[in-house]
Specification:
The protein is mostly helical.
């Protein structure tokens, strides 16, 4: 407590006090004792722990002020020993800081609990049963040096030579181990525990904002900052979060549903599907029902949705997020936190993380911080001092040391009101020797000594001494105290602590950092009186099991009064339930984990495990489905230690196994793959030896399938293949194995092994009763016959039936066929392009024959693409694309929307209509987790921005935003492609003075092309695609910078290859124009050259390519493509110049090209046409110089407006002697790049 808050009271007559004041009762009031429990509570809270922390307090205050002033994201890390006062320092400095109230700042805290028994981050070690099995399998693989081949996986006999024997040994090991108790349990923290708690508090505070009607009444005239209202928060969240984000965030923030239902019933209905899906996965006594179709997409969506939530909230109101005991955070929490602190889209956000320096688990926290700083070594000691220096990401590490002698002496002087200098030195020395300067230990020891009246003035004892206190008695009292946990245990043994001693062991076994009295009452209500007496460790018959909530709350309040628990605010659900009432149920938690440890130590290990199991059973039996979703990890933390001791025939064991499988499924949906793997392994270890028999078959199949998917997403290929082989061997029919085969197809694609994915898909189609031709003649024949059949069917249904009236397919086998074809199409596009039409035709025919599936829209869109790009039937391609978009309105699944729109807008409709809204497919791809198509849409959209002549500064800003997205979601191929495009735009703007060489601020062309490490990480096909993309950008730059020789050579050398890789994309038309234009210009140059006869072969090659590309563009114009008419007219002008036609013919074509470009507002192409117009007049007689100057100045003006400052400088040098003084009239424009609002709420307005 502060000195000012201590009040002086009278003393007993004759009592002598230290110093010059009578303070014996004051001493009790300050440190607390039997006569003044309130004084104890006040004195042993935060202030005593803060002596000697002035510098650290100031650092926190500076960070808070900086965050509020700059509206920026900052992170502060507090590192120190347990009990050094990290939490107290943060709470006393920030929680009630005046700037928070002034700026209406949100303040939320979350704590990670002391682990009980498992650690998924360490699940690769230990003697867990399934881990032993995986280890055996990995050893067998290592001995044979390679992983199983595709043929071995599909073989019905064995996965590979010798693997069957290993598999049998593995199963035998699992069966034997599962009947034994696990002797070396690993540690496990609850999933996202601290983050869930903190974000739940954020939701509560948003809900508690005043309404619009109340805001005027509560406005503080002295505070000029306008107070935000609940309605404004609702608007901000509804703008920043789409229905998909609301849906996914319920996994991370269960009480978000209460917030949403309070505000928006419509969004609540739209987002209810995910809750229903998880609730249906587990019912007592029923089989598992896990949906395997979208784990990967949900995991990807989860990370993005959580970031959007934080972005939206921090832009709406400043937010301080405090996460305590990070050393116990699960790996997924640290990964999520790492992405938050590196997200530059956040608003005013201060993240404060506390962790223990001495805990070995803190290494993961240091590694996470070092990674955010860009230091891969994870050594913070080299980069921080006591108050660490900031880095590129505004971060600071504050290191708290144990208290020294002088600081403890100052504490004693203040707490004991001693004014004599040096009078507390000897007592401080005793405390330092016993506690080693640990602040929490010091405070608890002073409290203990005070309660034993050992801190009373010396004259209260019956002998005299030069010391103010009886130091011998103090030393004797400290003899039996080894550490703070033993001290708390001694305190609990005191007679006045009979209620805490009875209650706290049970509370400690619940294992939650925060609990309500109703949770504890629910546990105790299901406990017999004898069990309560046995587990509660009390001897006083007056302490009995509470009979009702009122008595339960009184007992908890007594624990608070005695300094063992602390009371916190109500949960958001309680706020809703208690709205309009005077009070709400409070949450409780231990004041420190050392109190929890001391409480647990009152029970021996067997008692603790037995009690935890009873508590877990009690919570499980009393939970409704929604509560079970929120508490599943805490319940399993209680049940799992004893579950392995249950007989394999015990139904409880199977129920716990299914509960673990459900937890694994939920962890996968939260992008927590290591934790998911651990829980699924635990589930399988609890299965009986006859797990594959009828009684257990479905549950076993679900668990092994979930295990394979979790391991594939977690990156453990050997474990994934082992699970897959178990399903392959024991699965009873193809439909039981389909999820495994589809998972393997995706895994091969992720490994850039498209050919193996394709081969597996073909085998799966055979199992399902279909076939895909793979030989040359068969492919040609199937393509032709498939085309004829499909065209006939499409024409029939398009003319007589509305596609949306087709029935919805529910047959599982037909759905499996369509899913397999869909995955086959992706693999064929990457590896076997000639087979893409065959697959598309088959998918479309099945759609019209059987009905609508989730893959119907992308198949119809792909058929339109084939009609447009392969057969030139633009009308049918457009019609199919439009019908595909109509199907999306009927099918509410979001995972196919991005791909469908990317195909329709990116490679189909732009041939018949103006370029469409590709940003929609990007946003929907992010929402659904379909990052492959989201990134593809971004690349297409950047092509569209350039083709439409948008300002280069806007395009460059879009590249900057897109690059961040690509890097965040680990898309290396798209990163390479984007760097080339981005550098090309920067070259036009004037970065580093290069023209067609792609070297500058964002990439080095030579380094990219010669980077052996990067090429090793990519497949040959991917590396070639990257190289061709760079060539495409260079060809485009050659047109604008007039390097026609370079451009023409690239067009002749690799133009057709680039076109093949761009098939149907928006840039494909631009590519053909660029190649034809450069080749025509070079042909004109060679025609006029004196040495033209000696290089006639080169001229013919240029003309051959130009003529072919020109013809393709003419065909597009003839088929009513509105986006390339100006290209065709400009190339017609080049042909006229090449043929020596009359100038009127040339100018006619140029005027036509200019008119088309102006109509479509393509400013860059207008400038190019005007430049060509000017140079044409320049080549004519002197009398046409006026025409030249007009066209030249217009071209310069448009290039300037477009932002191509390097091109303007280039032309100024070329035309300086011709334009002279005219150049002084060229308007100056701001050459700075447009900055973009990168907030989530404005992405659709400013980004796109």
């Amino acid at each position: 407590m502060d000195e000012a808050s201590a009040t002086t009271t009278g003393t007993e007559e004759g009592a002598m006090t230290p110093g010059n004041s009578s303070t014996a009762p004051l001493l009790l009031e300050t440190l607390g004792g039997s006569s003044s429990r309130r004084g104890l509570e006040r004195s042993t809270k935060h202030p005593p722990l803060l002596f000697g922390r002035d510098r650290e307090r100031q650092a926190l205050q500076v960070s808070l002020k900086r965050m509020l002033k700059k509206r920026a994201t900052l992170a502060v890390w507090l590192e120190g020993p347990s009990g050094s006062g990290k939490s107290a320092l943060v709470a006393s400095t920030l929680e009630h800081a005046p700037p928070l109230r002034k700026h209406q700042c949100l303040y939320a805290t979350g704590k990670f609990d002391l682990p009980h028994e498992h650690d998924p981050a360490s699940s690769k070690t230990g003697d867990d049963e399934t881990e032993t099995a995986i280890g055996l399998l990995r050893s067998a693989y290592s001995a044979q040096s390679t992983t199983p081949s595709l043929r071995d996986l599909m073989n019905k006999k064995s996965m590979r030579s010798g693997a069957a024997t290993v598999a049998e040994e593995v199963d035998a090991t699992m069966d034997q181990s599962s009947a034994q108790s696990t002797t070396n349990e690993l540690q496990q923290t609850l999933l996202y525990q601290g983050i869930r708690a903190a974000l739940g508090q954020v939701c509560q505070q948003l809900l508690n904002l005043t309404s619009g009607e109340e805001s005027g009444k509560s406005h503080d005239d002295n505070n000029p900052i306008k107070r935000k209202t609940r309605q404004e928060a609702q608007t901000a969240l509804n703008i920043g979060l789409d229905a998909s984000s609301w849906q996914v965030l319920e996994i991370l923030i269960p009480n978000l549903a209460a917030l949403r239902s309070k505000w928006d019933d419509e969004v609540n209905s739209a987002a209810s599907s995910i809750s229903a899906m998880t609730q249906d996965t587990f019912q007592k006594g029923s089989s598992l029902n896990i949906d395997f179709s979208n784990f990967k997409e949900l995991a990807d969506r989860f990370k993005l949705a959580s970031r959007r939530f934080l972005q939206t909230v921090s832009h709406f109101l400043p937010l301080v997020l405090v996460l305590d005991d990070l050393q116990w955070a699960d790996p997924s929490s640290l990964n999520l936190l790492s992405s938050w602190i590196q997200d530059t889209d956040n608003g005013a956000l201060l993240i404060v993380g506390c962790y223990r320096s001495e805990d070995p688990a803190s290494g993961a926290v240091r590694k996470m911080i070092a990674g955010a700083r860009g230091d891969s070594h994870g050594d913070l000691s080299q980069t921080t001092t006591a108050v660490g220096a900031t880095s590129v990401i505004p971060m600071q590490t504050i290191i708290l040391r144990d208290l020294g002698l002088s600081e403890i002496e100052d504490m004693l002087d203040s707490l004991l009101s001693v004014s004599d200098l040096g009078s507390t030195v000897s007592l401080a020395d005793i405390l330092v020797r016993k506690t080693k300067g640990n602040g929490f230990f010091v405070v608890k020891l002073l409290q203990y000594l005070n309660e034993h009246q050992l801190l009373l003035p010396h004259d209260h004892h019956h002998h005299q001494s030069k010391n103010l206190w009886d130091e011998d008695a103090i030393r004797e009292a400290c003899e039996s105290i080894d550490d703070v946990a033993s001290l708390i245990s001694l305190t609990l043994e005191q007679p006045e602590n009979k209620v805490p001693r009875a209650l706290l062991p049970i509370v400690a076994c619940i294992g939650m950092s925060s609990f309500t009295s109703s949770i504890l009452f629910r546990v105790l209500n299901n406990m017999s009186k004898d069990d309560f007496k046995s587990f509660s460790k009390h001897q006083d018959a007056a302490v009995s099991r509470p009979a009702d909530m009122a008595s339960m709350t009184r007992q908890l309040d007594e624990c608070v009064e005695r300094g063992f628990l602390t009371r916190t605010g109500p949960s958001i659900e309680q706020s809703l339930q208690e709205e309009g009432r005077e009070s709400a149920e409070y949450n409780f938690r231990f004041v420190h984990d050392q109190v929890q440890i001391a409480s647990l130590n009152l029970l021996n290990k067997d008692e603790r495990v037995k009690l935890q199991f009873k508590i877990g059973e009690s919570l499980l039996s009393s939970c409704d489905p929604k509560e079970l979703d929120e508490m599943i990890f805490a319940i399993l933390d209680l049940l799992n230690p004893r579950a392995t001791k249950l007989r394999s025939s015990n139904p409880k064991r199977m129920e716990i196994a299914k509960l673990n499988a459900r937890a694994g499924s939920q962890a996968m949906r939260s992008s927590s793959f290591p934790i998911a793997c651990w829980y699924i392994r635990r589930a399988i270890s609890l299965l009986p030896p006859n797990r594959w028999e009828d009684q257990y078959y479905q549950d076993t199949l679900q668990m092994y399938t979930a295990g394979a998917i979790a391991e594939s997403l977690g990156g453990d290929a050997e474990a994934m293949l082992w699970y897959a082989d178990r399903v392959r061997q024991h699965g009873r029919n193809i439909m039981d194995k389909i999820p495994i085969f589809h998972m393997l197809m995706d895994w091969f694609l992720d490994q850039d092994r498209a050919s193996e994915s394709f081969d597996m898909g073909c085998r799966v189609m055979e199992y399902l009763g279909g076939s895909i031709p793979t030989q040359g003649l068969h492919v040609k024949g199937s393509t032709l016959t498939g085309l004829l059949k499909t065209k006939k069917m499409v024409n029939k249904y398009m003319s007589t039936t509305d596609v949306q009236e087709l029935p919805i397919v529910t047959d599982a086998k037909e759905l499996a066929v369509m899913t397999t074809l869909d995955k086959l199409g992706t693999a064929a596009y990457l590896q076997r392009k000639k087979l893409v039409p065959v697959i598309i035709f088959k998918g479309v025919r099945k759609t019209f024959k059987n009905g609508i599936t989730p893959h119907a829209a992308p198949f119809l869109a792909a058929y339109g693409y084939a009609m447009t790009n392969h057969l030139g039937d633009f009308a049918m391609g457009k019609k199919c694309g439009e019908k595909a978009l109509e199907l999306l309105s009927k099918d509410k699944r979001v995972d196919v929307r991005a791909r469908t729109k990317a195909i329709v807008y990116g490679v189909n409709l732009h041939f018949m209509t103006p370029i469409g809204p590709l940003h929609e497919s990007y946003l929907e791809g992010l929402q659904s987790g379909d990052f492959r198509n989201a990134m593809f849409s971004v690349a297409l959209h950047l092509q569209a921005l350039f083709a439409c002549g948008k300002s280069l500064s806007l395009i460059e800003g879009s590249c900057r935003v897109a690059m961040k997205v690509f890097q965040d979601f680990k898309q290396p191929h798209f990163v390479g492609v984007l760097r080339g495009m981005w550098q090309g735009y920067l070259n036009l703007i004037g970065d580093h003075g290069n023209t067609t060489i792609l070297t500058g601020s964002v990439m080095d062309q030579a380094q990219v092309l010669n980077n052996k490490k990067q090429q090793d990480e990519m497949s040959a096909a991917m590396a070639r695609r990257l190289q061709m993309n760079l060539r495409r950008v260079q060809l485009n730059l050659a047109v604008f910078f007039g390097e026609f020789k370079h451009g023409a050579d690239m067009a002749v050398e690799c133009g057709d290859e680039i076109l093949d890789k761009l098939r149907g994309q928006i840039a494909s038309v631009t590519l053909q124009f660029d190649g034809a234009y450069c080749c025509y210009r070079m042909a004109q140059y060679l025609t006029s050259s004196a040495t033209a006869s000696s290089i006639g072969g080169m001229r013919r090659r240029y003309l051959k390519y130009a003529t072919r590309a020109h013809k393709r563009i003419k065909d597009l114009v003839a088929k009513m493509n509105p986006n390339c008419r100006h290209y065709c007219a400009l190339l017609d002008a080049e042909v006229a110049i090449l043929n020596g036609s009359d100038p009127m013919v040339v100018t006619h074509h140029l005027d036509e090209a200019l008119a088309f470009a102006a109509k479509d507002e393509m400013i860059h192409d207008q400038a190019l046409i005007l430049e060509r117009y000017a140079n044409f007049w320049r080549s004519q007689d002197e009398e046409f110089m006026t025409n030249f100057r007009i066209r030249a100045m217009n071209a310069l003006t448009l290039y300037q407006r477009w932002g191509a400052h390097a091109k303007v400088s280039h032309l100024k040098k070329e035309w300086a002697h011709l334009l002279g003084a005219y150049l002084k009239g060229l308007p100056e424009v701001d050459q700075r790049s447009e900055t973009m609002d990168m907030s989530v709420s404005s992405i659709s307005d400013s980004y796109w």
